Each structure stands twice: as C-alpha cells, then as structure tokens.
Amino acid sequence: MYAVLEKTSSQTVHEAAMNGWMKPVKEYLKHGDVNAMYNGWTLLHTACCHGRDKVVKELVNNPHICVNLHRSTETALMMASMKGHKDCIDILMRTQFKKDQDSVPSEEKVNKLAHHEK
C-alpha cells in the first residue's frame, strides 16, 4: 500500500526532514512518495517528532499526503503533541480542518443541486 524506500535515498530525506533542511525535502517531493516509510516513520512523523514546522507545512501541502497515517499506534499529530511542538500541532489541526471544510459542499453547490433535481 505504501512504498518503502531504499535505505540510501530515504535516509537522506529523513535526515533532511529531521534537521529542517527544506531543499532536499522539496526536491524529494517532486518525484518521491510523500507517504513512504523508513524504519516505520513517514517524513511527517520525522518532522513532527523534531518540531520542524516548515517541513511539516511543506508536507501537508502535498495533495497526496495522508496526515493520519501512523506507525504502530502514533500519528504525526500524536508525536507532535507528545513532544510539545505547538507549531506543528497547529499546522496539522488547520490542515485537517481545511480538508474537512473542502469536503463540505458550499451553500451555492447545494442550492444548484437541489434546484437541478426538481
């Protein structure tokens, strides 16, 4: 279901996420699987665990990110919470709220559908 990366490329991008190095993360996201795991961790887990809010923001803006993907039983949000990384928590919460809002049809769309069905 989710790709497991080769050690060399994955190690590099996970080190970048852990250290907040944006350039390698952005470069990886052009061709790599944003949800791929290395040693049971996604890039989002790594960035949240280490409080790298800029990396978290970059990752959640990827349309293919699975925010609730978890290793064992810990989601990235849980990891950020356990480590006290408030900026990461805020980004994840806003992202989830935005995705929830995007999935709710606007009043205009509802009215058009209701009018069309009559």
From TrEMBL:
InterPro entries: Ankyrin_rpt (IPR002110), Ankyrin_rpt-contain_sf (IPR036770). Keywords: ANK repeat, Repeat. SMART domains: ANK. The keyword Repeat applies. Pfam families: Ank_2 (PF12796). This is Putative fem-1 B-like.
